[in-house]
Every structure is written in structure tokens, then in C-alpha cells.
Amino acid sequence: MAHPRQEKQAPPRAAMAPGVPTRVLAAKVLAQVIGRGRSLKAELSTALPTLDDSRDRALLEALCFAVLRRRNAYDAALAQWMQRPLSVREDELRALLLVGFAQLDALELPAHAALSATVDAARALGRERQAGMVNALLRRAQREGIPPQPARAAFPLWMADRIEQDWPDQADAVFEASLQPAPLWLRVNRQHGDRDTMLQRLEAAGIAAEASPIAPDAIRLPTPVAVSALPGFAEGALSVQDLSAQQVADAMSLRPGIRVLDACAAPGGKSAHLLERDPSLHLLALDIDPRRLKRIGETFARTGVGEHAQVRAGDAGDPAAWWDGQPFDAILLDAPCSATGIIRRQPDVLLHRRETDIEALVALQARLLDACWTMLAPGGTLLYATCSILREENQFQVEAFLQRTRNAGFLPLGDAFGHDSWAGRQRLPGENGADGFFYARLLKKG
Q1: Active site residue 64
Q2: How many other CB atoms sit within 10 Å of the CB of residue 244?
Q3: With 60 as the cut, is the pLDDT of residue 4 above it?
């Protein structure tokens, strides 16, 4: 009995030429993200440890990010240059072609190496019969270049429209900045020394670094390096955290020794920052997902703040299920949101976020605000924060809360936190080299 023709299986890793395993992995990761709706972060967390060389790991990340930022342009080029569109079952081959385009276009890698490794990757994926087609399409991309598209075209239509509606004067800059690679920001742990000392250690290690003028613990690296190369990282002297996220601690401006709740704490970076600044705080790090508590624990252990904090699983929107009834003097509510301010770090937001998500997110944010308010002591402050740039989740959310909550007011924040947004402040992507972020500091009258 005749058997149907089978595609050749990928050869063992050891048989692949240098650079080929990275392209194969990039195609597999992107096929999951684009074709099956998987999270880029989750897929990379599985794929990156399989590569031994830090340069290969950096290339894998760069390829995936570049493809997702320019996916619409690359898809348009494929549609224009191919006589027959690829089938749904050929998702890995399609992803590999996008990886090839990204090498020539966004990353500007040497054409010979990019073409050779990508064609070999097609064979490694069992696509020997299509290797010639891959070669031909990449050579055309090399000759003609990818047809240009405006940055706005990378965004879903509904998202682009909302950004233009909310930020008409800044929308073009938002689109452009959101498609650029994000810089590497570091946070200095004050329990290990001051920022000037850490800058000297980085200089001694041959790592260029510069201090932020608006955030006292923030250092920016013009050229990113692997965290393993950072002096003091393993011991907790440095952490990777964007400037905007670091300014949460500045916005909260806590008094020593008070009782603090981080209501949506995972992975624990903001809680750790607060405790690095003041170990006298009585801090509870809460997260609704018990599986994410491990990440918080790891963050606390590396930074050395674990003995000063409690970690608990619980829904901040349902205090009756876990709260002991003792009010908190300060609450951080870094609420779930659309993530439209961090697209440069999570480009799959362009792919996965739906307009229908916004209504559900706004309802969840309102529920969390109301519930956290019941746990706040009179005279206490609640910092409402998101990594969104949509007014519906930010300014309008806070306006609605203040209108329905008679004992709520707000404390103004300065220009260092971004554009004036009535009761809060909004930084847009790329401003001060930072992510898009919203802050509103709310006061419980009493």
C-alpha cells in the first residue's frame, strides 16, 4: 500500500550550520504567536534557553520583535510577490519568510549570511521543496526592498483611530516610537549603594551608561547588554525596569513604616523597588494568579527584600476572600490594561488586542478601584497606574471614579510624569526614552 509523501523532518541540532537553529526557532515561535494566538513572552521563555550563545538569544529576540513590528508590510510584500498564497498549514514557512525579510529590512544583516541561513532553515524545517522559492523571494527583497508603509499601518485600525482621537497632536510620534526597539533601563538597589557608585562599576566593566535626570534610581544603557554581564545583577544591586515603571515609587512618595498593598504585584518589580528604598515598610504583594507568586518570590530573593514583605494570592477586587480588615495607608493599583503604552516591548499587542477587550478592561479597572478604596485608611493614598495610553482606561476612568466616590480627591503630580491629564499624568511611548504610562495619585479624605 502506497503511503502519502512525507515532508522531511528537521535534522538534529548538531547537523545545522551556524545561525540556522536561531532562524528555525524564530519561525517556530512566530508561527505560534501569529498563527495560534500564543503570547510572544511565553514562547520566547521556552525557546531562549535552548540556545547556548547569548548572541543567538539576542538575535532570536530581535528577529521576533522585528517581524511583529513590520508584519503588515512583510505580509503585503508576500501577497504582491507570490503567485499563490501560502495555505494556513504552511504557517512555519510563512513565518520563516517574514524572518528573512526582517533580516534584510529591519535588522540590515549581511545579505549573503541572511539568505544562506534562512534557506538552510527552510530545509531544516522539512521544506526542501520550497527552499528555492525562499531563496528567490529573499533575493527579490534584497534587490527591491520591502515596499514602505507608514507606521500607522502596523496598528489595527480601531487602535490607530483611538490613539489619533485621544492624542491628535502626538499620534504620529506614538506610532513611530511604538515600533522602535526599547532601550535597556536599569534600577539601582539603594541597599547596595548609590547610583554614582553603580555608574562607576558599569564604566569599569566597559559598559556605557547614563543617569536619568528625572528618576533618582534609573540608569539607561545606550547599547543593551545581557544581564549576565551587568556587575551586581545576580546579587540584586541592579534590576531591569523601565523608567516609567520606576517612577511609580516617586509618585507614591511613601512615609517610613506604613502599611502598603501592591494589589496586582507580579512579577514584583515595583514592590521590590519600594522596599529597596525603605525596608521599614509593611508591604503585602498580592496577585490573583497563584502561579505568578513564584516570580514575585524570585524577584524578592534576588533583590534581598523578601524578609520585609508578605506575598499572597488573592483577588484585589474581592477583599472579603482574603483581607484581614486592617486598612492600608497606601495602595498601588497597577491595573490590568490594554498595554498600548508598551508595544515596543510587547509587539504582539498589535496582533492580539481586540477592540472588544477595552470595555471588559475598563469594567475590571473600575471594580478594582472601588474594592481597593474600601481597604484604604482615611488620609491614605492610592496610586492608580496603567501601561495604557487610551484615555478611556486612564483619564476617563479616574474622572468616573472621582464622580462616584464622595470621599475621594487627587494629589497633583509634576511634569516629570508626563502630560497633564486632568487628575493624572500621561507619558507617551518614547518620551524621556520611556514606555507609555499613566499615573493618578488619589487621596482618601477623612
Answers
A1: no
A2: 27
A3: no
